[in-house]
Design goal:
The protein is mainly alpha-helical. The protein is built from 14 helices and no strands. It has a single domain, classed as Up-down Bundle (Glycerol uptake facilitator protein), CATH 1.20.1080.10. The longest helix is centred in the C-terminal third of the chain and has 32 residues.
């Protein structure tokens, strides 16, 4: 069993890893980005399947969020342990940037390729799930809940979506941080599980997860039975569009995710542990 890392050692590991990520090829980043997007989409779909009947009832909604939260962490576990490149986790490259070890352009290059891959992987899974008819589960209620979740996500104000994005990636990057610090597979899994469970239970907004949730809802609303099962008005259904997804959810949530991961985790720990130089071994 490897020894666990101290917080300072984790911060140095994140900085070193950022150098490697910045130097990776475009094909590598896009391929692993597609895989990571698919892994997060699997988790989103699975969490919806586990809890859709509870999420459909206001009286059990909180319990449904809690149950969904027990399933969703599998997505980040697959990214970190099986291999993948996730945009939200890569916001921690800000540590490497502020140390002067990579350029701002190199960081944006990584983010851009990974974000593209995440989007492609997530939308591919959304298309496959909707086309499979799986959303007909529970007499079509799963499809209805999928549409309703998507509609809710495009109904936030810009500021609300931005803040929910900050809160989300603060926790997601803490999960990544704990995974990096653990000394064995079991510790990494546990480190990922608890913060992600908390983020899903709380209802915060994750840009890559939303690349599944909202496109799946947009695709699902074209099936009349699922649109009806959502209980949404025609006006709400009409407002669920690709344009609304990009401008009312994906943009503000992405910006919030960048702030949550790079500043509230990466920069905070850099200031605490690395601003005077590299961390030393415990």
């Amino acid at each position: 069993m490897s020894a666990i890392k101290t917080p300072g050692e984790i911060c140095q590991f994140v900085s070193d890893l950022g150098v490697k990520k910045a130097a990776a090829s475009a094909s590598y980043l896009i391929l692993l980005g597609v895989l990571a997007g698919a892994f997060i989409a699997f988790a989103a779909q699975g969490s919806n399947m586990a809890a859709f009947n509870l999420l459909a009832d206001p009286g059990t909604y909180g319990l449904g969020r809690c149950l969904a939260g027990t399933v969703f962490p599998t997505g980040l576990m697959l990214v970190l342990l099986a291999g993948g490149e996730l945009f939200t986790g890569n916001t921690l490259m800000a540590v490497t940037l502020v140390q002067g070890r990579i350029s701002f352009g190199a960081m944006l290059r990584n983010w851009g390729y990974v974000y593209l891959g995440n989007f492609l992987g997530s939308v591919l899974l959304a298309h496959m799930i909707v086309s499979s008819g799986l959303l007909g589960s529970g007499g079509g209620l799963l499809g209805g809940v999928t549409v309703k979740i998507a509609s809710g996500k495009v109904s936030y104000s810009f500021v609300a979506a931005f803040y929910l994005g900050i809160l989300c990636n603060w926790l997601v990057c803490l999960a990544v941080w704990l995974c990096f610090g653990a000394g064995d597979m079991a510790g990494k899994i546990l480190g990922v599980f608890c913060p992600i469970w908390l983020f899903i239970t709380s209802g915060f907004e994750h840009s890559v997860a939303n690349m599944y949730y909202v496109p799946a809802g947009i695709m699902a609303k074209s099936t009349a039975a699922w649109a009806a099962a959502s209980g949404l008005t025609p006006e709400k259904l009409d407002a669920l569009t690709w344009g609304a997804f990009i401008w009312k959810n994906l943009l503000p949530v992405t910006l919030g995710n960048i702030v949550g991961g790079s500043i509230f985790v990466g920069m905070a720990y850099w200031f605490a542990y690395l601003r005077h130089g590299p961390a030393t071994k415990a």
